[in-house]
Specification:
Keywords: Hydrolase
CATH architecture: 5-stranded Propeller
Number of strands: 18
EC number: 3.5.3.12
Strand content: 15-25%
Strand order of the largest sheet: 3-2-1-18
GO molecular function, one term: agmatine deiminase activity
Family: Belongs to the agmatine deiminase family.
CATH class: Alpha Beta
Organism: Vreelandella sedimenti
Largest sheet: 4 strands, mixed
CATH topology: L-arginine/glycine Amidinotransferase, Chain A
Order of helices and strands: HEHEHEHEEHHEEEHHEEEHEEHEEEHEHE
Length: 376
């Protein structure tokens, strides 16, 4: 992939003497804590989404409507798509003009943090489009880099600029001091090549208020995000995680799942608890069909999407809202089984399945296009 030079891809140290969020008492709540709202972005990029993003837009509408059953939903839209989005989305979903390069709010949006005194703030990570000039998924990413600053001004909250290239999908926390991530992503030289594991752990602790980090070796097979943990494993409650699981030992995903299981079985969280692991079946394997690869602009500056390419489908890529779980429907062979497991894991919430293949064709899924704003 060829790119022209653009923004720097490495972060800088905080100003000397400037306190970090952790030093001020802020920390990141778990996704299963109560939300005030959910933030999303509107898909329109023609080299990511086929046929002018019309099929993907319908899937995004379905996700927004499902989440809006239990919390306020904001959808950020580029000016040229504002009227279209406003007409497609129900009136109770808030449409705001918020320009972006693509629609992955989990990764380009803020990581919200809270303070015991009731304050809300955010972490503004460095963003380099999942790999920078040589390995990133698209170019440019200038609008994406401004999203966090804009949301902080819209909400009137403090924004902490972190000295770390990181996307929101690369981390999950339990809200009690534990963070889970993958070596494949955060130790990838296309993110923070000048930083050691210890340095990365230090900044995660300082900006998210965590004290214990669990490192899984790899993310899902052929995940173009370089192994985001939110496609493989997530916290569903203190001491409990959901893990995607592949029974077929001939599938490369099987070894990844078993590696992760070994780490999780031998891990404890920040409170000293052993983890309870709940397996979700892997859909597929899923591949891009010939007709699904058509209608996409082919640009040298973006990740190609070709017929036969395997997609990193996972039922772990669901969203936990206040009263519903919004999960992707990806494979009729496994959809109901996955839905049943999630219903048992979240007995007080209603599980809503959304047909999500169009989102997966763009490279992610429901968790990837959402970002929770905690209630304070």
């Amino acid at each position: 992939m060829k790119h022209a030079p653009t923004f720097p891809t490495t972060a800088t140290e905080p100003l000397a003497g400037e306190p970090t969020p952790s030093a001020l008492g802020f920390s990141m709540p778990a996704e299963f804590a109560t939300h005030a709202a959910c933030w999303m972005l509107w898909p329109q990029r023609p080299d990511t989404w086929r046929y002018g993003a019309k099929p993907a837009q319908q899937a995004f509408v379905d996700v927004a409507v499902a989440i809006a059953e239990s919390e306020t939903v904001f959808v950020g839209v580029n000016d040229e798509q504002y009227e279209n989005a406003r007409n497609q989305l129900p009136a109770h979903i808030r449409v705001v003009e918020l320009s972006s390069n693509d629609a992955w709010m989990r990764d380009v949006g803020p990581t919200f943090i809270t303070h015991p005194d009731g304050r809300l703030a955010m972490v503004d990570w460095e963003f380099n489009a999942w790999g920078g000039l040589k390995e990133g998924l698209y170019f440019p990413w200038d609008k994406d880099k401004r999203i966090r600053c804009k949301i902080s001004e819209m909400l009137g909250i403090q924004r902490f600029e972190a000295p770390l290239v990181l996307e929101g999908g690369a981390i999950h926390v339990d809200g009690e001091g534990t963070l889970i991530t993958t070596e494949e992503c955060l130790l990838n030289p296309n993110r923070n090549p000048e930083m050691s594991r210890a340095t990365i752990e230090h900044w995660l602790q300082e900006y998210l208020g965590v004290s214990h980090i669990i490192w899984l070796p790899r993310g899902c097979y052929l995940d173009e995000t370089d192994g985001h943990v939110d496609n493989l494993c997530c916290f569903i409650a203190p001491g409990h995680v959901a893990l995607t699981w592949c029974e077929d030992e001939q599938d490369p995903q099987s070894a990844i799942c078993r590696e992760a299981l070994r780490v999780l079985e031998n891990a404890t969280d920040a409170q000293g608890r052993r983890l309870t692991i709940h397996k979700l079946p892997q859909p597929g394997p899923l591949h891009i069909a010939d007709d699904e690869a058509s209608g996409i602009d082919r640009l040298n500056s973006s990740h190609p999407r070709l017929p036969g390419d395997r997609m990193a489908g996972s039922y772990v890529n669901f969203y936990i809202s206040n009263s519903v779980i919004v999960m992707p429907l990806l494979d009729p062979r496994y959809d109901e089984k996955a839905k049943g497991i999630l219903s048992r894991l979240f007995p007080t919430k209603r599980v809503i399945g959304v047909t999500a293949r169009e989102i997966l064709l763009g490279g992610g899924n429901i968790h990837c296009i959402t970002q929770q704003q905690p209630r304070v």
